[in-house]
């Protein structure tokens, strides 16, 4: 299977392998006009419509038994505006292609997530984010959106044009329309110095506020069954460029982080009792290193080991308590957790259903190797996250519903009212949206 989702015998599957769907038909429109026509035709046939990107969501947010829109022909850069410092890109463009194209033009996004396999529209529609003290999610860098709405018309929105739609559609969950183009703010390409080093969990938690305040981008990975973490600080640098050497990069990023890690996951899945010992070895396998490169080469890394993931945003001030509770739960549970827990932060933003909407946030992500039972671990973790008013990532495993979200998001009703206006017949409905937004 490729790095993206697969379709066999008419069945669509996501990257994590935990979601499957059988659409009535699949369409890959070559233009916005073709996409509009496909939406109108679906309405005539009484079918729902969903667009799917690379299938990197672990929820069934893109699943449909109606018309599945694949945007692989809607790719490429439409326009670079150097006066406004924006780039307008077709919705199906993979982040990887966007990053490479921008770098060639001497430009960059301000912040990114840690992988770049997703399409731009899939990434923003689910609230994909990296880590940042001042710089927020990918969606927060949007300056304009174009979307095809339920009646097949094309709606353009920005802070000036249809601002109510813009407020919500930047993270629209595919509920308001099908995004066809996105205008991002960009800046001249810059250098980041990454400093990766192991640090005891207790020290990270005790010093978390300082580590967050002193670094533009701080994140860490805690290895369950150990008191160890691997920390990463990314800060802007005057240079010179000092990329990871190809050999060291292969050893650390491919051999250790993907190859050996994959084998460790296979062993852990076959013999769960070995997991704590493997975790202790894993937590010491990666040594400290520092390198300086252009942003996307520092922010992102290859993820070839397939997993299933749950991630919640909690108020930033609740992070240390949340993690202490998570560690205590794992320690007393008898669970065998072979994947590290990833912790990142984001500043408050003004997007209606952003996980960081209106509050400074910390993200805690728990993972399990694909094919390993994850329910017990995720259920116990989710209990801790929700006790801290956590908001789950829209594209990752969770069990929350519209009733929970109406309490978790002060502007939830604003979003559902807009949806009633833009999609009264629920052309873009599926089971997931029925659960999280109500019918």
List the SSEs and their pairings.
Elements: E1 6-8, E2 11-13, E3 20-21, E4 25-27, H1 32-44, E5 49-51, E6 67-69, E7 77-81, E8 86-90, H2 95-104, E9 107-108, H3 120-125, E10 142-148, E11 154-158, H4 163-169, E12 178-185, E13 187-188, E14 191-200, H5 201-206, H6 208-214, E15 217-222, E16 228-237, H7 246-270, H8 275-285, E17 289-293, H9 295-299, E18 307-315, H10 319-333, E19 341-346, E20 361-369, H11 375-387, E21 391-392, H12 402-408, H13 412-422, H14 431-437
SS elements, strand count = 21
User: What form results from the Cα inertia axes?
Assistant: globular
Low-confidence stretches are: none
Main β-sheet, spatial strand arrangement: 17-14-16-15-19-20-18-21
Task: Kindly estimate the percentage of residues that lie in beta strands according to DSSP.
Answer: 15-25%
**How far is it from the N-terminal to the C-terminal residue, by CA?**
35 Å
| Overall average pLDDT | 92
* Gyration radius from CA atoms, angstroms: 21 Å
Question: Helices and strands: which structural class?
Answer: alpha+beta
Largest sheet: 8 strands, antiparallel
Helicity level: 25-40%
- Please count the helical segments: 14
């Amino acid at each position: 299977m490729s790095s993206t989702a697969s379709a066999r015998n008419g069945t669509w599957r996501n990257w994590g392998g935990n979601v499957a769907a059988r659409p009535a038909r699949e369409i890959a429109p070559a233009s916005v006009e073709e996409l509009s026509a496909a939406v109108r035709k679906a309405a005539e046939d009484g079918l729902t419509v969903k667009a799917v990107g690379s299938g990197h969501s672990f929820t069934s947010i893109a699943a449909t038994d109606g018309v599945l829109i694949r945007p692989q022909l809607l790719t490429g850069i439409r326009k670079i505006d150097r006066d406004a410092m924006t780039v307008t890109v077709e919705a199906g463009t993979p982040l990887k292609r966007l990053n490479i194209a921008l770098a060639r033009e001497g430009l960059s996004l301000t912040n990114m997530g840690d992988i770049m396999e997703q399409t731009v529209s899939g990434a923003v529609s689910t609230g994909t984010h990296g880590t940042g003290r001042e710089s927020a999610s990918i969606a927060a860098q949007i300056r304009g959106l174009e979307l095809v709405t339920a009646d097949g018309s094309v709606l353009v929105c920005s802070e000036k044009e249809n601002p109510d739609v813009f407020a919500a559609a930047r993270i629209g969950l595919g509920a308001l329309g099908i995004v066809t183009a996105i205008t991002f703010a960009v800046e001249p390409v810059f250098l980041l110095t990454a400093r990766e080093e192991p640090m005891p969990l207790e020290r990270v938690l005790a010093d978390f506020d300082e580590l967050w305040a002193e670094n533009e981008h701080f994140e860490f990975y805690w290895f369950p069954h150990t008191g160890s973490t691997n920390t990463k600080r990314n800060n802007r640098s005057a240079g010179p460029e000092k990329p990871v050497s190809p050999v060291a990069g292969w050893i650390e990023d491919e051999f250790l982080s993907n190859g050996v890690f994959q084998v460790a996951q296979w062993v852990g899945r076959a013999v769960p009792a070995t997991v704590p010992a493997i975790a202790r070895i894993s937590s010491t396998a990666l040594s400290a290193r520092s390198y300086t490169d252009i942003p996307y080469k520092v922010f992102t890394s290859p993820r070839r080991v397939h997993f299933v993931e749950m991630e919640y945003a909690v108020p930033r001030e609740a992070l240390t308590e949340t993690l202490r509770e998570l560690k205590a739960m794992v320690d007393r549970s008898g669970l065998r957790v072979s994947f590290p827990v990833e912790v990142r932060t984001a500043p408050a933003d003004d997007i209606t259903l952003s996980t960081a909407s209106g509050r400074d946030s910390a993200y805690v992500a728990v993972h399990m190797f694909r094919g390993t039972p994850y329910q017990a671990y995720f259920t116990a973790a989710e209990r801790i996250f929700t006790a801290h008013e956590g908001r789950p990532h829209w594209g990752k495993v969770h069990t929350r519903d519209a009733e929970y979200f109406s309490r978790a998001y002060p502007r939830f009703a604003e979003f559902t009212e807009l949806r009633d206006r833009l999609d009264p017949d629920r052309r873009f409905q599926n089971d997931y949206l029925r659960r999280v937004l109500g019918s």
